[in-house]
Write the structure tokens for this entry.
Amino acid sequence: SKLSSLDTDIGYDPDDLFPLLLAAKSTELDIRLIVTADEARGKRATFVRTILDKLVWGKPQVVQGADLGNDNFIVDELIEGFSYKAEKDYISSIKKIVDAQEKVLFIGIGGFTNLANFLKAYPKDIKKLKIVMMGGAINYSRREGWTEHNIRVDTQSAKYVIERGGDISLVMAQTTFHSYYEVDNNHPIFQKLKSSDNKVHKILVRHCELFNAEKGNWPMMHDPLTLVTAMDRDFVKLRKSKVSVDENGVFSLDNSGKEIQWSDPVSKNEEFMAFLEGRLFG
């Protein structure tokens, strides 16, 4: 199994909670560290800790990542009465993991801030990282002036990471923003979660309901698909191209840019959703 660090902005879109359930059961990944992205005054780290305790998955250290001053955290009721003082020196925590092995898998399902700050502190360590992140879009937009969330939340950090030219694979919005990746309240996975006695399944159901009340949407499986891509599963086909990122966080194919791997719009969606269901309830 691959020594890994997971970066997550859990606590808003429930698609961040699905990967924790998958990772806890994974033989493919050895996640030692979870760092919260776009932290909301320590609440994301507290939420991660409550989940890990219920999963009886004690191994990963939970560290607060950079707080950008945003407050998009909607699950306060799910951390009520639970206090957790997480370590805040995420750069040293990432460094410890990176120093422990020849190659470390950095899985990002939040913004790029923590990774950018780590690479600014230890630029040579990019050679030791295999980076798999959810973020960006190529030849795809949701509406006029739209930028994918994980890029938009800290565009300069995303640009910085891409321009380092490391071993980077991005699972992008053109792949994940499809109705077949949405788990709404009629979806078989949601119905199974609802009838489950598992404590974390109950939390996930409530999280989905709170998100729907807030946004009018149900979660799409952007982040689980990214985690599973990091496991080397082939549900997503990766292309290799040189790309650049402009000041607004818009990606374009550009021969003077840096080479990354990015996800094809077409994916094995049915196989992935079956795999997700199998892992969640298996």
In short: The two ends are 20 Å apart (CA to CA). DSSP finds eleven helices and nine strands in the chain. Residues 189 and 274 are 9 Å apart (CA to CA).
